[in-house]
Amino acid sequence: MAPPSAHPVGIADPARPSCGRAPELQTWAECFRPAGYLQALRLSLVGDGRRQAQPQRSVTSAVRLVRGATAGAVLHRRGTSPLPGLGEDDLLAPLSPVLDVARSRMEEGLVFATFLWPRGGAHAPNGHTRVTVLSCPDAAPAGVLGAVVLSPAGDLRGLTPRELEVLGLLVDGCTNQEIARALVVAPRTVAAHLEHVLVKLDASTRTLAAVRAEREGLLVPSLPSPCRS
Hints:
Elements: H1 28-32, E1 43-45, E2 53-55, H2 59-63, E3 71-76, E4 79-82, H3 97-107, E5 112-118, E6 128-135, E7 144-152, H4 161-171, H5 176-183, H6 187-200, H7 206-216
Helix pairs in contact: 4-6, 4-7, 5-6
């Protein structure tokens, strides 16, 4: 049992109406499935000056919650610290854009978020990594935002790196013209990508494609978004 001073991270709270922006996200099971969650994650974050994260149970037990987790970090307002039991990764290094996106998700008030990140550049020559973001509750020690965990990307539904980029911008609410400007391509190229995306996601509309992409974590985020103020 956790000590009275422990603060749970990423607990699935049925009282909260949603863990994402899309209206189709109705259950916690749907939200946690893309990252391989089989049960709720609980970590103790200790505000002892070092602000290190320590597992409530064994480290091995915590790591198993994200299938194939390879690296992780605790995110603070002024930096990061290692997540015990997991390795290090350049994607979690200081000034990494992955951490910027994770911070933005936490600051939006999301308890849980998952997205993809391209390895080796925008066109993902080395494939994609899944990033799972777990926010701290309001009672967490001052300055502690939550945890960021990396794991294999999983099933991408045959989507190409460019189509994943388009999906990320679609979820952000971009029009075809805005997506074209952001990716420096012609609008007709964007339309062709979207046609392929709709087929691969078995979606009849852009809205449904965006909902399914966010629910399944099938998007590469852009920060800052060209379509959000």
